[in-house]
Amino acid sequence: MGSSSPPWPSPLPHAVVLPYPAQGHVIPLMELSHRLVDHGFSVTFVNTHFDHARVWASHPGPRAETGPLRLVSIPDGLEPGADRNDLGRLTLALLERMPGHLEELIRAASAEPERGPVTCVIADQSMPWALDVAKKMGLRGVAFWPASAGLLATMFSIPSLIEDGIINADGVPTSEHRMIRLCPEMPLMNTAHFVWNCLGDPITGRIIFDYITRGNKFIETAEWVLCNSFSHAEFPVFNYAPRIRPIGPLLPGLKPDRLVGRYWPEDSSCMEWLDQQPSNSVVYVAFGSFTIFDPHQFQELAIGLEKMGRRFLWVVRPDLTEAANTAFPGGFEERVAERGRMVGWSPQQRVLAHPSVACFMSHCGWNSTMEGITNGVPFLCWPYFADQFLNESYICDTWKVGLRLSKDAEGIVTREKIDKTVEALLGDSEVVGRALELKEVVARSIGEGGSSFDNFNEFVKSMKKVV
Ligand code: UDP
After folding, report:
1. N or C: which end of the chain has fewer CB within 10 A?
2. Atom 1 of ligand 1, nearest CA residue
3. Residue 4, pLDDT score
4. Is this model's pTM higher than 0.90 or not?
5. Which atom of ligand 1 is nearest to the CA of 147?
6. How far is ligand 1, taken at its centre, from the CA of residue 132, in Å?
7. Which of 112, 111, 127 is nearest to 46 (CA)?
């Protein structure tokens, strides 16, 4: 052995990790941060003040302020009582106010002697301007995309979609009900379902479209574009856009001491309830952190769950409906008490790994999708907005591990449809069997020698090299 110094900086790399302030972004970026710490990095994890308070308030253990993974926060630019589910306003505020705060934070973090200077910025692809901050400060920049590579490739393709006349310069489809395929073997996409057209209202859509278009330019400077997917799941997309490197699914598994970054306190009592149910008997019903039901649909879902006569575990967030208080149909809780359980927020990753769970009625958020397939659980798909329609196509048409809960002419998923589709899914041994096969494929991708495992290690190695 020679006496030359190792080919990485000492102390080891210090990453500033910046998620978009939404639950489905904070959770995977937090897991990425833990993995980096496992590989000797120190991480400064930057939430907005608003999310920082929520994450600590819902964390059960003592608040750890030290150690290699440190949580800090900066303002999001909105006033304290503002509606942070208004994605248009939130995004504009972030863009205007956060870059300056991030720069200050990086300077302060670099001056702390025990960690060593910041060496790289790992920006959520939905915070692309952070890569510009990194560039100006002479730091290495990495983009991380917590959703599907298919969606990311679609966003990268905006200039050609405009050039080909599929959308206009504002992102609006030029014809109704047009189905396109971005690349061979990728699912067909309804142009009306492009993510910026599915955010509730056209003004928000326009703001997000502009934000994505500007963001695409910043991504060009990223050394790595990482994605929380795996190569088998979306191989045509990785051939079409080889810059995107899959390192997922990034899930903490059942490690109890991992800080997960959740916004709501978990109700873990449902795990004991699951322990008492027969294996493969429970329909798990959860729609992520954003989905809002209109009160009529909420009632219909409750009646549908009651009518199906099976066991169920239903996540009813306090803000799941448009009504101020989510109210069940009269007498519902008593009638289903023997076989149904409602919680405000579940430990979803543990729930999906539980042998009592038979299937997952889901809004098809990408994290939920990855968590379901990692555990071999088949899906009942009920997408609500953003990229969830594309994810539904992956589940039902590409991987064929789920069925759609289609709406009637009034736009309602009826009680009869719920009952029938649950029965159809659980009686379909091919779909259930494919879900179990896909679980094996995921395990191979993330296990030693798998493509996600190798990509992650290559990334870590490159970030440890002095440039
Ligand atoms: N989640 C959870 N408990 C719940 C519901 C959701 O822990 O009761 C987690 C879920 O495991 C996932 C995230 O919240 O990691 C939701 O992300 P997803 O992309 O599925 O949906 P979004 O909230 O972004 O719509």
Report:
1. N
2. 348
3. 45
4. yes
5. 19
6. 29
7. 127
